[in-house]
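*Target chain*
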Amino acid sequence: MRRTAVRAAASGEPQEVLPAAAVPESASGNGSASATGSAFSAPGAAAAPAPAAYRLQTEFPFELPRGYVDDAGTVHRDGVMRLATARDELVPLRDIRVQENPAYLSVVLLGRVITRLGSLPLVHDGVVENMFASDLAFLQDFYRQVNAEGHTRASVQCPHCSEPFEVELGGSRLGES
């Protein structure tokens, strides 16, 4: 199965990234042929292309629809979310607030994976808890897109005009991957 990385476009939606350019054989530094390279090919034959190198993007910029308003009245809209780890999804399950109210899972989870929001020195679940509902919904959707490796969109074609477009596929609730 081919793995791909995702990146956030200017619109803030993650998109699939194509493989990076092939790594040249001389990049290994020793200049010798690899076991699968030209050492076993016929004299004068070109070496097989090296496998493509992939860069996994782990942080994704976003812009909140409304913005978080801090105690001083400053609006913070630009932020960065990182990929979630298994630990990020497991640790909140031990939180008493999540045990008492499972809907609180997304608040705690987003508080763990948002690494920057405007000029705030620290982003935590208390910040997420005080966001506008539209911003919370945006972040929940963005989390799903980022952590699903771009598999939440499908290319389809209009049955009437044959125009291609993308649709968002339904997913599970945040934190239930």
